[in-house]
Design brief:
57% helix
Length: 175
Amino acid sequence: MAEDKKAEKAEKGEKKAGGGNKLMLVVVILLVLVLAGMGGLAYVMFSNMNKPQGAAQTEQTKEKPKKKKEGPPIFDKLDTFVVNLAGGDGSLLQVDMQAELGDEEAKKKFTDYMPKIRSALILLLSSKSAAELATPDGKVKLKAQVKQIINESMDSGEEELVQSVLFTSFIIQKQ
């Protein structure tokens, strides 16, 4: 009888141990599912970081990113401009400019379109008065207009082949 009790205790012990193994198996399976879920969530979050989330970002992604070029900037000098200024007071403007270009391809296009660019710039510069150009603000506005005129003259569309315009000489002479 003592042996029967020991056998029953042994069976109960095995059942407890077996139940513990089942509990451990359930815990391990739940742990694996939680980790898989977290991994899936992390994948979705990191894969969607560069994707647009709204209409505003959709428009931004349609724009071509500006190319990062390495090395020094590319400049090309325009010939000196000497024009009569508007206003009828006989004022002259002599200006030397350089254009900062995006790349060598832009420089070639800039050279190819030079007659068209010069014509448009002569019309722009001769439409200005000495009073407009005498102030620093007037010169900054003129730089922006020159850049826009050059890009439009080269039929560049929305792509800006000319990054900026620099005045290397700017003389207004009143007579």
